[in-house]
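Hey, resending since the last one bounced:
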Amino acid sequence: MAERLQKLISQAGIASRRAAEDLIRQGRVTVNGQVAKLGDKADPARDTVAVDGRVLQAQVEFVYVLLYKPLGVVSTIKRQPQETRRTVRDLIPLEGHLFSVGRLDVDSEGLILLTNDGDLANRLMHPRYQHSKTYHVLVEGTPTPRTLDQWRQGVMLDDKCTAPAKVRVLSGSTHNTWLEIVMHEGRKRQIRRVATLLGHPARRLIRVKIEWLDIGHLKPGEWRHLSPKEVQRLKKGTR
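The structure tokens again:
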């Protein structure tokens, strides 16, 4: 059965669908020796699809990993030139290519998913699915009820109001307050920037959940495989 090339590439664990589209546009994908165009299809049972001359091999088994990313670790998979810090991929002693789902800044910590299932990774990251993410954030000082309401309703960031978020106090003292923040959007360093705008800079940020999937009892640097039931539930929630 013929499928779009970007789907075949993601299923083979080469790249996500979006990245696969870029590969096609760059002329790096061929079908039966001919350079492919965006929108082309192929039947893996009859056609030979290659990326940079490498023939696609269907994944025999998908891998789904939940990792507690520690502070100071870069959430990208591919190490950039001149990068000396560890990446999340360095923490997972498994062979093969993995995509990271749900990036975190180097100075933040918490839950990240890694998988070679490019199709699922793409759907989990796509804005249209509105997946919620839950964070525990330690901020300076004690935000007033009015300040918390501002955060819940949205504040102007880059000339655009942030989407409504759920914000509640977990615990606090005179100097610091732990907040739980549940949000569906994820602009660059959004929580830290909003916290600073509201006068309560974030001192620590931990992502504890993506949708219903939580970090559990994992400690920084620890990881585990998702159970078949967890994988099934994730896939059901992205259809």
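The mean pLDDT is 89.

Sorry for the duplicate.
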